[in-house]
Design a protein that fits this description.
Strand content: 25-35%
Radius of gyration: 20 Å
Strand order of the largest sheet: 8-10-7-11-9-12-13
Number of strands: 13
CATH topology of the largest domain: Phosphoribosyl-aminoimidazole Synthetase, Chain A, domain 2
Shape: globular
Order of helices and strands: HEEEHEHEEEHHHEHEHHEHEEE
Largest sheet: 7 strands, mixed
CATH class of the largest domain: Alpha Beta
Distance between the termini: 6 Å
CATH superfamily of the largest domain: PurM-like C-terminal domain
Amino acid sequence: MNEFGLINKIRLKTFPHINHRLQSGIGDDCAVITDGNKYQLVTTDAVYENTHFTRRYTPPFELGAKAAAVNISDICAMGGRPLYAFVTVGFPKNENQKYVEKIYAGLFAWFNAYGVDIAGGDTIKADRLFLSVTLLGEVEKNRIMLRKTAKAGDVIFVTGKLGASHAGLKTLMGKNKKRLSKDENSAVKKHLMPVPKFIAGRLLGESGLVSACIDISDGLMSDLLHICEESKCGAKIWEAHVPIADEARYVAQKKKEKALDYALYGGEDYELLFTVSPLKAAKFYDFAAGNGLSCKAIGKLTANRGVFRVNASGEKEERFKKTWKHF
């Protein structure tokens, strides 16, 4: 089973849009629906026990918070604001009710922080615990950011620093939250309760200078590949320019692994990966500086397909092959 191959087949077999208000469906962070002078944004995501989390190192409050955050992040990647959530929870019939209540407490806390109402949902019996969240939001038509509107030559940017979430996962798998150092504890917190980049997303949309955007859920290289596929181009990433989180450096060093790999392939950082035309780059730098937006240029899009890594000396290219696979 190939996840993205399956999605592409479903996409190709989809009938022409019956409802003319649907502007964009499969292939982006959210579906886009025309609503007067704005677009409605709709996204959905699920977390399933022993696939996306284990109870051994995921407390119920943090599980609810993360289920909310990953959906909010999709809205942020489109430049929008989240509004209404529909939550379906499935669990075994002998599940502890207090455990489920703590999950909802995490959901409420994160949704409340971002101005989201839980408007409905469902509870069902299941063999394992899972949460499925559908989130509705909106964005002004002149602020929306898609994956398919980048062009060869565009500069690739990323907000924040990468690899901390993967460092947190590695720490939990090894220590299960026991005797953690300051960096390990910070990494664990970033993995269990990611913070969606709402302000950054709104600013990027407001700038009118971004040609494409996506949130980093599956990993920098994997999500960059999504932009390339939708925009029909390739990319080069300059390894020396990739911003690596201090937590990733600390944990990778302890485990004798490469911090750069945490940043490139780890995933679940929920930073924003976006592109800007080289003709608008200078204006964008001024906009970012004037609005306190922390971001860094890490590469460029190319006319030739494929995603490549360029090493620090600039002498070697390595064709990128790794991507996150659910199956």
